[in-house]
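Homework-ish question, so no full write-ups if that breaks the rules, but can someone show me the predicted structure for this set?
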Amino acid sequence: MQNINTVKNAIPQVAVKGLKWEKVKKKILRSKFLYLMIFPSFLYLIIFHYVPIYGAQIAFRDFSPFVGVLKSSWVGFQYFSEFFSSVYFWRLIRNTLVLSCSSIIFEFPAPILLALMINEVRNNKFKKSIQTIVYLPHFISIVVISGLVISMLSPTTGIVNEVIKALGGNSIAFMSEPKWFPAIYVGSGIWQSTGWGSIIYLAAMTGIDPTMYESAVIDGASRYKQIIYITIPTILPTIVIMLIMRIGGVFNVGFEKVMLLYNPLTYETADVISTYVYRRGLQGMEYSFASAVGLFNSVLNLIMIVSFNGICRKVTETSLW
Amino acid sequence: MVGGENMSVAGKRITIGDRIFDTIIIIILCIAGMVILYPLLLVVSGSFSSPFALMSGQVVLFPVEPTLKLYKIVFSHPEIMRAYANTILYTGLGTLISVSLTSFAAYPLSRRDFYGRGFFTTVLMITMFFNGGMIPSFLLVKNLGLLNTIWAIVLPGAVSVYNTIVMRTFYQSNVPLELQEAAELDGANDIQFFFKIVIPISKAILAVMVLFYGVSHWNSWYHAFIYMSSRSKYPLQLILREIIIQGSTNIGGATTGDTEMIGEGIKYATMVVATVPIMCLYPFLQKYFVQGVMIGSLKG
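A: Not a homework solution, just the prediction itself:
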């Protein structure tokens, strides 16, 4: 491989053109079976990912299922401006940001703290048991988790309200009061994903050279100091990467969990862009309008992740690409 | 150099501060463990309790007036059982398709001498950051005539970018270049090499993939929710959603007075029934999943 590269660089540019094509052809022929192997997945990506991206142009057209995408008349940004001026626009943006930001603030640091704690446990048996327990919720379906949340918080039979009543309070209808929704959303997220999220940080910690801790002990550093000066700096690049991905997806609130947990009574704080797209598009059959809202969301996501990645690359030299 | 008198073997710390620190951490972890286990225990206990005890809030930890009544109702309910069968079918076929596509695609991406590797990797990665959205995807599935068929469930999410990267990373670090060169000398082409050499040494990662995809197909409800319209084709998670979330609990032919009372218990029993297969696999899952995440985090 290296030989080929040096040879390529050695030949003067002018004479190369014909040769280059020959070489490319040879390389392509050499890889022919590899193309055959990747072809099914490539086809899958084109059909199920790139065709919808192409189809997103119905956001700019007055789409009618009877004439198809390309023959529907072009209306430009009509649906976008309809969305921007609708009464729901700010509510959706606000709800999306509130849910997303509170989960970044509360849900994001939780796995880091958990990993730091697990890493400090010396007793291997205890360590293994705790890990087995905290990873468990990751494998439970989101439908079951939502059902669990609803049952636990039920005003009549839920254990949480039993406790409130036992303490002399009045039972609270958690699922139908808008002000509780963000807390329920974030709380259940922490419950489900903290354990699993800690694995990636624990993996990063296995790379730490034990002699570093040993010399820290010799220097008289307490356990707490060792965490601050050895463990955290080591996992910092991982934290940055995870944060980029998380902040890049700030407008990408999980459709599934909101869909399962919200109801018309809590739309005020729970309705987010994706659920709105679902109701207007698939329930209301306003394909073009809903596509415009969805496209707006996708573009917003893209802008967020690209710009945040850029900032991180400049500031910390750690980035996704 | 004075030190040494206060120190035992490296790794053993004896300060009081450190001991307190250890204790606090263990206490916090124990509390965290209990917070995670308690709701699960409550559901299992509830599903074995008498509906009356459940409704009157007597079940706080262990089953009260233990009975299998709720499970009898669940297992004799034709809709739940049909949904169960559907889920097994969707999970089986879906996992087969996903694992084949992924392991096939990841191999060329792992080969440094694959001409066009950068292009294909980019095509793959872009889908992680940008998509056409729910409506165009729905219209595509509709136009392909897949609505309300098994294909609408197993195809749209068939290849996960993350899993492909994990697999590619595995091949990269586990398939020795010498083997590939030797195979080339012997005149084996890439596909023969893949089946004869790569697959046998990749059994561990294939197990990871089967579990990764298997669990996600088993637990998935989104595609069915968007694309399926006839109830007879619903997977278990979608029926569960109706029972649990929408509270449509008047199943099992209970008389009206009983309905509400049994409802909560039925929810619990159904949740348990839907989750038990995953929990049976959990010991394997934990081992292999952690491996998978570790490989994935080695930086793609």
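Now go work out the reasoning yourself. Hint: Chain A has a mean pLDDT of 87.
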